[in-house]
Amino acid sequence: MRGTSEAERAAARDRVGDLVPLFTEVGDAKRVRVAHTPGSLAERAFRRSWAALCRGEAVESVARRESARAVAAARLGGLDVGTLLRAGLPKDEVVRVLRRSFDAVAEPVPESLRSRLREFLVPEPEEPEGSLPVPDFVQRLARQPRAGCTRPGRPRLVLEPPENHAEHCMTVAVYAVLLSEEFGAEPGRVFLAGLVHHLHNAGMPDSGFTGEAMLGDKLGAVMDRYREEALTELEASGGAELRRAAEREIREIETADGPTGRAFHAADVLDRVLQMHHYAREASFTVDQALEEMDLVHDGPVKSFHESVLARANLTPANDGYGR
């Protein structure tokens, strides 16, 4: 950051680093699903956000509500407002559950932002997700896989399962809100920047850095063509004002010179790298971790019986030949 001392830059690095464990959990919303509706939690939040914006809700309100829900979901997963209300929990108890989950992970978020987000954890009536009207590009981004890890001149490294663009955009939008105070940015603006930064991929398949390099000086024209297609859909669904706001944030994130650009680009690069950490963590996962670190056979009335069965089956870490 310009005009800051080394000590200030070090402190800023520490504050961003403090958020990484929370970001890792929030990012897992790309991989959590429920039975009653299709798509990951992140994909559903992307669809919900666009539906709210297109029906005229203020960007700031959508940004705060969806970011608060994403933080609470770090521990609650798919146990969201609608699920808890359908189970018969009173509204005040639903609020307590949501805030308990939020508080369990939100400590690294600056206190002033944390308190404002927490206020948005309220059980508002929700429309069935399948009935939410959204522009066509929202569905296409949900179907468009991310390219993964590519580099010109090298074979493509395909990582499975791929995240989709709706999941990535939603995660970046939430990260950017959580980083907004650090960079002096407005939460609503950085949230919208996250939602719109891959609009062109609604029509342009993601071939990564490798494919883009093959387009050479035609890359900009191709991206502009498909971005305009999505923006036209957005204007038809949400009006000219929403389109203008989207265009403003697209211009703003062409660089990292201003507060919006810095918060957005910090969120974007963190999500890209944390996604790679996810693949690495998944590939190195062991049964020992499940049993010992994650307490797979957890406390309860039948824990001792479970452990005795695993011992007889030679499936405990203490037994020789474990895992064979």
Notes on the protein architecture:
- InterPro entries: HD_domain.
- This is HD domain-containing protein.
- It comes from Rubrobacter radiotolerans (Arthrobacter radiotolerans).
- This protein is mostly helical.
- Helices cover 63% and strands 0% of the residues.
- The protein is built from 15 helices and no strands.
- The chain has helices spanning 6-27, 41-54, 59-76, 81-86, 91-105, 111-118, 136-143, 165-183, 187-196, 208-215, 219-238, 240-252, 259-283, 287-293, 303-312.
- Helix 1 packs antiparallel against helix 8 and helix 2 crosses helix 8.
- The protein is globular and about 65 Å long.
- The N and C termini lie far apart (53 Å).
- 34% of the residues are buried.
- Mean pLDDT is 92; it is low at 320-324.
Average per-residue pLDDT, rounded, comes to: 92
**Helicity level, as a percent range?**
55-70%
Ends: how far apart?
53 Å
Low-confidence stretches: 320-324
Class computed from helices, strands and strand pairing = mainly alpha
Secondary-structure element pattern, one letter each: HHHHHHHHHHHHHHH
Major beta sheet summary: none
How much β-strand is present in the residues? under 5%
Shape: globular
Alpha carbon gyration radius: 22 Å
Count of helical stretches: 15
Topology, number of strands: 0
